[in-house]
């Protein structure tokens, strides 16, 4: 039986929605302060919210880039504590492009902030201590269906950055009221985050303190990154600061351990990839696409036996001058289902493949005249004559 693989995210005009629900831990946090995980979350949200408001609205010339804006893909981002016991943490975010590319950027760049937040939830896997595959699997397990999604405009975040920069150029690069130093603007944020160490103790046996330190350094990279950072472990502290401010600066200046996550392989094994995918075939001037419908696993086995001696791998594909026919073979998820591939195996395949091109038309740019409703589907040539209503290949 052919089954449809549901997509938990919805996309519109190239913007995708992601909604997560995660249960908040019960009991008290591992600190001297008798505070629950829920109350620690609320304090963290108030702190982060105040920092963003201050950095975006209080200064005429913000010198610290917004940590979410640096991702260059996020349209909106909101967090809330919902429900009765057990309380749940709700995350709703709208972003440019597809789920897979977005999640890789989140795991790499925004992971420290999400670790600081979701470490308060049961079963969470920190991005710093786990591979991308493990982290993405947790996100999928906490993701809930988006039944309805609305997006007002088709502008990407990069479009908005371009328009913002164009407006600055139109004004001649002038920003009214520019004043203040980077350290002056950053110090209130450093101090506010440092005060959270009472709630996220830097105990070697816990991950809480490490999550706070990584998030603080990611939120304020202008202070310690670059060839001449403002603060460093062995650098004298700026004069005229209070003892609390000096303690906060020493805290954020202390370097973190090296990233323990295994590196992502740069390229796949060419011997395991069909020719023409990693590197285009040379001197090709004609192509033909033949669509086949598989009836069962036996049909799949016969097709593979026929195709195996005819398919080059990327490791030994022709480099030019070939006059013979070159063959590649591809499957849809529906074809694999009809061939008898088990559901557990199908779930290990990328969600983008399981959803299919038609469901991802908004993300892929197939809009308006290229929308799936306007695709010219090829005619069927078997059986002849075709049954009524099946004159063309089904989408």
Write the layout of secondary structure elements.
Elements: E1 11-12, E2 15-23, H1 37-58, E3 74-82, E4 88-96, H2 99-118, H3 132-142, H4 157-170, H5 182-195, H6 208-219, H7 221-224, H8 243-253, H9 297-307, H10 333-338, H11 343-346, H12 351-355, H13 361-364
Antiparallel strand pairs: 1-2, 2-4, 3-4
Your description of this structure?
β3 and β4 (about 90-95) form a beta hairpin. The protein is about 35% helix and about 5% strand. The protein has helices spanning about 35-60, 100-120, 130-140, 155-170, 180-195, 210-220, 220-225, 245-255, 295-305, 335-340, 345, 350-355, 360-365; strands at about 10, 15-25, 75-80, 90-95. It has a four-stranded antiparallel beta sheet with strand order 1-2-4-3, with helices on one face. α2 (about 100-120) packs across α6 (about 210-220) and α5 (about 180-195) packs across α8. It has 13 helices and four strands.
The neighbouring-strand order within the major sheet is 1-2-4-3
N- and C-termini, Cα separation: 17 Å
Radius of gyration: 27 Å
Segments where pLDDT lies below 50 for 5+ residues? 1-6, 175-180
Strand percentage lies at: 5-15%
Q: What's the rounded overall pLDDT mean?
A: 84
Main β-sheet description = 4 strands, antiparallel
Pattern of helices and strands? EEHEEHHHHHHHHHHHH
Broad structural category = alpha+beta
Number of strand segments: 4
Shape: elongated
Helical fraction equals: 25-40%
Number of helices: 13
């Amino acid at each position: 039986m052919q089954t449809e693989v549901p997509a938990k995210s919805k996309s519109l005009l190239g913007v995708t929605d992601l909604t997560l629900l995660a249960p908040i831990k019960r009991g008290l946090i591992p600190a001297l302060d008798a505070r629950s995980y829920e109350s620690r979350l609320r304090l963290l949200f108030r702190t982060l919210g105040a920092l963003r408001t201050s950095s975006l609205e209080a200064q005429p010339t913000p010198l610290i880039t917004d940590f979410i804006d640096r991702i260059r893909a996020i349209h909106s981002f909101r967090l809330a504590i919902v429900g009765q016991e057990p309380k749940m943490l709700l995350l709703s975010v709208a972003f440019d492009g597809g789920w897979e590319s977005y999640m890789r950027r989140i795991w790499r760049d925004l992971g420290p902030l999400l670790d600081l937040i979701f470490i308060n939830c049961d079963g969470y896997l920190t991005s710093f201590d786990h591979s991308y595959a493990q982290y993405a699997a947790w996100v999928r397990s906490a993701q809930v269906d988006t039944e309805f999604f609305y997006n007002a405009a088709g502008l990407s975040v990069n479009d908005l950055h371009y328009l913002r920069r164009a407006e600055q150029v139109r004004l001649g690069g002038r920003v009214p009221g520019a004043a203040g130093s980077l350290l002056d603007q950053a110090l209130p944020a450093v101090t506010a985050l440092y005060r959270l160490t009472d709630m996220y103790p830097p105990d070697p046996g816990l991950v809480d303190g490490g999550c706070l330190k990584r998030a603080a350094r990611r939120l304020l990279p202008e202070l310690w990154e670059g060839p001449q950072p403002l603060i460093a472990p062995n650098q004298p502290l700026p004069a005229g600061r209070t003892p609390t401010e000096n303690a906060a600066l020493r805290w954020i200046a202390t370097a973190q351990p090296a990233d323990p996550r295994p590196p992502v392989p740069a390229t796949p094994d060419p011997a395991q990839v069909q020719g023409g995918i990693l590197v285009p075939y040379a001197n090709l001037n004609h192509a033909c696409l033949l669509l086949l419908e598989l009836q069962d696993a036996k049909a799949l086995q016969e097709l593979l036996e026929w195709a195996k001696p005819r398919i080059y791998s990327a490791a030994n594909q022709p480099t030019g001058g070939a006059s013979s026919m070159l063959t590649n073979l591809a499957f849809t998820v529906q074809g694999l289902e009809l061939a008898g591939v088990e559901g557990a195996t199908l779930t290990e395949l990328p969600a983008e493949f399981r959803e299919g091109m038609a469901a991802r038309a908004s993300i892929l740019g197939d809009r308006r005249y290229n929308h799936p409703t306007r695709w010219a589907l090829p005619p069927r040539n078997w059986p002849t004559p075709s049954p009524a209503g099946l004159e063309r290949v089904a989408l």
